[in-house]
């Protein structure tokens, strides 16, 4: 294994008076090396200017290294399908270093399914984990265990405010909610807004858009304190039930301003289309095909978009950089852009 200046690991071992294996253990921070030998090796490395070829070392090693992406199950056309494309890109890059990338999936509406997925992830003994914190309390337990085992973890899409994560790739969640409120109201007073939420939030088990919703509510309270904010809970899996809830919403608490903070604003658009309601101003998130169709048809006025594929790929790359190439990240929180799409520019979004 040669460095860029042709100084080899054998040269370092001879100059330090230790074995090649001792130098290797110091370089990769593994195994037991006395403090005296470690100091001697590091001094020789510095003096000779040795630069190990980490790429070749990883490929030569027979050790299996894995990165696990813990993501929800999904159907074609849903938000996590685009994330999966980013994982595929990250997998291709990681393979150059002899690293495998695997998916472990779970039902995002079932906490036990998430717990089982966490257990399966730990069984893989990965060097790193990429995840979105769907169930807050269970996620905190899981990442605590990852930290205790020295396993790096990176948040995508949203993050928890705790100290152990290696990096985050996604929108600034609070600011995206604040921005959403400004787009929905167009900066003018409105009497009321209806926040459409997935029923799982009501049960208190999973609320991944909490921070985004907090930013939205703060904007409304700061700018239009007289505006009434209502929460309406729907079942995304039951169209009949969903229509009953939205019918009742329009009968009991009508509002011309509707918002949804996850990627499923198309569920609201489906109702508006069926009921031929065009008087509402509707804002949602993410570039799903159904969301874009609703945008083009005028049932949604704006989408706040993000490249979730790029987030996933970058998350995998960050683990490779730190865990395997022993490099430092330039940033911990990598906030991606918040792109505002309407019916006139959505077809040009790349």
TrEMBL record:
GO terms for molecular function: DNA-binding transcription factor activity; transcription cis-regulatory region binding. Residues 7-61 form the HTH lacI-type domain. Keywords: DNA-binding, Transcription, Transcription regulation. Signal peptide: none annotated. This is LacI family DNA-binding transcriptional regulator. The lineage of its organism: Bacteria, Pseudomonadati, Bacteroidota, Bacteroidia, Bacteroidales.
């Amino acid at each position: 294994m040669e460095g860029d200046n042709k100084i080899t690991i054998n040269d370092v071992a001879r100059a330090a008076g230790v074995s090649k294996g001792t130098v290797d253990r110091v370089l990769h921070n593994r195994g037991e090396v006395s403090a005296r030998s470690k100091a001697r090796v590091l001094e020789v490395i510095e003096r000779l200017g040795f630069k190990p070829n980490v790429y070749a070392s990883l490929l030569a090693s027979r050790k299996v290294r894995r990165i696990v992406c813990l993501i929800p199950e999904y159907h074609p056309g849903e938000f996590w399908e685009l994330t999966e494309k980013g994982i595929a890109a990250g997998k291709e890059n990681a393979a150059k270093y002899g690293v495998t990338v695997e998916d472990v999936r779970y039902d995002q509406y079932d906490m036990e399914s998430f717990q089982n997925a966490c257990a399966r992830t730990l069984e893989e003994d990965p060097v790193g984990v990429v995840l979105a914190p769907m169930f807050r309390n269970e996620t905190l337990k899981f990442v605590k265990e990852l930290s205790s085992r020295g396993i790096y973890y990176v948040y995508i899409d949203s993050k928890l405010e705790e100290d152990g994560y290696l990096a985050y790739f996604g929108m600034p969640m609070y600011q995206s909610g604040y921005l959403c409120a400004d787009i929905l109201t167009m900066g003018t007073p409105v009497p009321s807004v209806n926040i459409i939420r997935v029923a799982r939030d009501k049960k208190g088990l999973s609320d991944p858009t909490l921070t985004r919703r907090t930013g939205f509510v703060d904007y409304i309270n700061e700018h239009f304190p007289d505006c009434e904010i209502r929460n309406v809970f729907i079942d995304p899996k039951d169209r009949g039930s969903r229509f009953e809830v939205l019918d009742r919403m329009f009968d009991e608490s009508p509002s011309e301003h509707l918002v949804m903070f996850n990627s499923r604003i198309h569920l609201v658009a489906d109702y508006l289309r069926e009921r031929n309601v065009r008087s509402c101003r509707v804002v949602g998130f993410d570039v799903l095909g159904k969301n874009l169709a609703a945008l083009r048809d005028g049932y949604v006025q704006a989408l706040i978009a993000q490249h979730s594929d790029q987030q996933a790929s970058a998350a995998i790359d960050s683990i490779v950089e730190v865990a395997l190439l022993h490099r430092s990240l330039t940033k911990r929180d990598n906030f991606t852009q918040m792109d505002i799409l309407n019916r006139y520019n959505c077809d040009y979004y790349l």
